[in-house]
Hints:
This protein has 281 residues and is of the alpha+beta class. 18% of the residues lie in helices and 34% in strands. A hairpin with a 2-residue loop joins strand 5 (64-69) and strand 6 (72-78).
Amino acid sequence: MSLADFELQGQFELAVEGPDPLAEPAFWFVFREGRLLVDRSGAEWLPPKIRRLPLLGVPTESPHYLGRLNGVHCYCVSALSDDLPPKHEYVDLRGLFGRMPQDLYLIAGRAVQIVAWDRDHRFCGRCGSDLAMVQSDRAKKCPQCGLRQFPRLSPAIMALVCRDEHVLLARGANFPTGFFSVLAGFVEPGETLEFCLRREVMEEVGLEVGDLDYFGSQPWPFPNSLMIAFTCHHVAGEIQVDGKEILEADWFRYDRLPPCPGDMSIAGKMIQSFVARCQKS
């Protein structure tokens, strides 16, 4: 697997206004408390593909149009009950990784964020009035004061710190015992990505780093992050964990790594890339 696994391979036409009426079956990404409704009757788990949403027999809120994937219209919507059509189930997105076609999985990641944004941004944060959808854009607007609200995106950096044949891995406060990953942190207002990386590494493990190289990015819909990954090299300092966000950290030789992320995340791909480089040298 490669970084292309985080990108749509088919032809996706992004749009916010769908056809009216809908003349052919569409993919419906139906969410209930963050879990996606999927048809499990086949080898691959798929979102329902029907022409009219009421055919599911599931009460929902108003749908949002996403665009077209290889000519097929796509919608997302929030369910109002746990009702299930035959042979369907609500499944967490993490549990669908590798069980759903890649393009549909990536669109599901987009869809869950739009559904969550619609749910969490119903009132104006400035004056408290009900927000209204903007027809030509993915936004809501307050009819009283004019404030616009767009879907939230939280940029976060990931830092793989190298020292010769060793990589710095850390266990976060929310990680299970024995599980380690690369460092990560959210970008603060006014920061460059590079400054954020150096700040996070210094704050979390007390190390100075340099030689920053961009590795890649990944949309991470848990709930609304964009992961921006860099590799870098240790310059100075000894490991001193902050004891709050990071509970353990250490240098691990490439062939003696602890349990760490797999192919689902860009953190796992960075670690795999580091191992591959060391094996070739």
